[in-house]
Amino acid sequence: SGEFDDDDGGGSGDGGVELKGMPTRKDGSRKAFDKVFKQVVDQADVVLYVLDARDPEGTRSKEVERMVMAAASGGKRLILVLNKIDLIPPPVLKAWLTHLRRYFPTLPLRASGPAPNAHTFNHGQLTVQSTSATLFKALKTFAASKQLKRAISVGVIGYPNVGKSS
């Protein structure tokens, strides 16, 4: 797995990781970012693009999505993962899932327990265990459809602090 982080610590609204507009430091961090991002996308059969449920569009880059889909002549599978769903109300979650699924398969995920002081919402069956099981099921279904003779490779991308590690 791999991940990308931009240096400015967060989304920049519409356009997100506008690759041409990203900070360039003297140490070549921009070049390093490009290299790591390209490696992750090239090596992965499936790319999980982790978004923060509190600001899905602000943690999303259509440019990144286009780059993933253009890799390997469109042979990649991109799955949006809406993380931290316990921090938004159920009707808001439902609306975001409806919107995002117009573009790519989108899975709601509660990857870890809430912070002790967080105000959380109960989404019924959407527990850490059930949402991760759904993600694994989607990956297994993809692997079966490709009839690969090897394990599938999964890359994880997303802005800083969206929950890639979780």
Order of helices and strands: HEHEHEHE
| Mean residue pLDDT | 80
Identify low-pLDDT runs.
1-19
* Secondary structure tally, helices: 4
Strand percentage: 5-15%
> What is the rounded Rg?
16 Å
Main beta sheet = 4 strands, parallel
Specify the overall morphology: globular
The chain-level structural class is alpha/beta
Description:
This protein is an alpha/beta fold. It is built from four helices and four strands; from the N terminus they run αβαβαβαβ. It has a four-stranded parallel sheet with strand order 3-2-1-4, sandwiched between helices. Helix 3 links the parallel strand 2 and strand 3. The longest helix has 19 residues, at 128-146. It is globular. The protein starts with 28 loop residues before the first helix and ends in a 9-residue tail after the last strand. The model is unreliable at 1-19 (pLDDT under 50).
Give a quick precis of the structure.
The chain has 166 residues and is an alpha/beta fold. Helix content is 33%, strand content 13%.
Which tags fit this structure?
single chain; four-stranded parallel β-sheet; alpha/beta; disordered N terminus; globular; 166 residues
Task: Outline the fold blueprint.
Blueprint (H helix, E strand, L loop, with lengths): L28 H15 L2 E7 L9 H9 L6 E7 L6 H11 L5 E4 L18 H19 L7 E4 L9
Parallel strand pairs: 1-2, 1-4, 2-3
